[in-house]
């Protein structure tokens, strides 16, 4: 393992003014997104849609540091035969790959999940590296509800994240470690804070036990935020203040960067929260976005599966990318 090189990639992923495009929706998830805009989820439509994003010159070259791909996409070619990975590289962004294989029910823990995909991961990473991937993503999912999360769910997911991260570094790939505490439910921001604190502490404990080099990883956490159905929604300032307090308490300064998931926040909320956090600097790590929905909802709507809307889709994507790029420097204005 070359830690200097891993650190260089991790640092580039969170470069000031840039962030990550999470375009790694599984076939099931992208079908849901396409259903919402009345588009059939065929292999060609998925390719055309992602090609539209990766060919958005302004967004990709100025505001996007890296793109997380799904397995199908990393092997796909653009309509003119150019590998999609090459389009990303040509724009100056770094290709990455989602390597977890989704979740399964966790035995003995009703309603809780564990992320799977460690078997054969070492061999898969080798192939992804050869194809151009320089970072990877694995998402653990923790739900908040009555009596959950259990310590069991937090532990097994942290263990799997650390196993994955160590395998990535051994394959010269930067792991994005994503322990997502869901914002579904009616819990308040303080409950989210308390659960996320337990999850992050356990995750970093496992990372240490399994000898993961913190300098060669990126953390992708949720923000400390009110549950979607909570009657009392915390303000932008409260989300920013509590998230930064939480991260400072749990994330060592050796970690080069933190890139948030959007998790179901609206586009503007996701931008406003990141921006407000940068008003609370200086911060010990790079702090940016790794948004899926908050970057793609607008271009999906503008595109709607029609070739004649490609330019409109790219304009919508570039706008959101630019807004989040500004927010990653605390320079966004509503
Ligand atoms: P969202 O920003 O839509 O939550 O997606 C980010 C992601 O990669 C979740 O795993």
Automatic annotation (TrEMBL):
Catalytic function, reaction form: beta-D-fructose 1,6-bisphosphate = D-glyceraldehyde 3-phosphate + dihydroxyacetone phosphate
Keyword entries, A-Z: Glycolysis, Lyase
Top-level taxon of origin: Bacteria
GO terms of biological process kind: glycolytic process
The keyword Lyase is assigned to this record: yes
Keyword Lyase set for record: yes
Entry's Gene Ontology molecular function annotations: fructose-bisphosphate aldolase activity
Species for this entry: Bradyrhizobium amphicarpaeae
PANTHER family the UniProt entry points to: FRUCTOSE-BISPHOSPHATE ALDOLASE
Family, similarity comment: Belongs to the class I fructose-bisphosphate aldolase family.
EC number: 4.1.2.13
Protein's UniProt name: Probable fructose-bisphosphate aldolase class 1
Pathway the protein takes part in: Carbohydrate degradation; glycolysis; D-glyceraldehyde 3-phosphate and glycerone phosphate from D-glucose: step 4/4
NCBIfam families recorded: FrucBisAld_I (NF033379)
């Amino acid at each position: 393992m070359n830690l200097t090189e891993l650190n260089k990639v991790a640092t580039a992923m969170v470069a000031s003014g840039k962030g990550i495009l999470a375009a790694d929706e599984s076939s099931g998830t992208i079908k849901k997104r396409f259903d919402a805009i009345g588009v059939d989820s065929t292999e060609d439509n998925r390719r055309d849609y992602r090609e539209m994003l990766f060919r958005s010159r302004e967004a990709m070259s100025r505001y996007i540091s890296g793109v997380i791909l799904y397995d199908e996409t990393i092997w796909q070619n653009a309509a003119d035969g150019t590998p999609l990975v090459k389009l990303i590289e040509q724009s100056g962004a770094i290709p990455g790959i989602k390597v977890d294989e989704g979740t399964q029910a966790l035995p003995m823990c009703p309603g809780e999940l564990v992320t799977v995909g460690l078997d054969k991961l070492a061999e898969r990473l080798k192939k992804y590296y050869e194809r151009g991937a320089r970072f990877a993503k694995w998402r653990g999912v923790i739900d908040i509800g009555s009596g959950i999360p259990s310590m069991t769910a937090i532990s097994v997911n942290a263990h799997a994240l650390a196993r994955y991260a160590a395998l990535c570094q051994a394959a010269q790939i930067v792991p994005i470690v994503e322990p997502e505490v869901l914002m579904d439910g009616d819990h308040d921001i303080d409950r989210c804070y308390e659960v996320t604190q337990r999850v992050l502490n356990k995750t970093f404990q496992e990372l240490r036990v399994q000898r993961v080099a913190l300098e060669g990883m990126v953390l992708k956490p949720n923000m400390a935020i009110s549950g979607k159905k909570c009657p009392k929604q915390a303000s932008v300032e409260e989300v920013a203040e509590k998230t930064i307090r939480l991260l400072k308490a749990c994330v060592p300064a050796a970690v080069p960067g933190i890139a948030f998931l959007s998790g179901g926040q609206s586009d503007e909320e996701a931008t406003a929260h990141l921006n407000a956090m940068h008003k609370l600097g200086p911060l010990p790590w790079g702090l940016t976005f790794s948004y899926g929905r908050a970057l793609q909802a607008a271009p999906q709507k503008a595109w709607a599966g029609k070739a004649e809307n490609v330019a409109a889709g790219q304009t919508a994507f570039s706008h959101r990318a630019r807004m989040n790029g500004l927010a990653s420097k605390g320079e966004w204005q509503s």
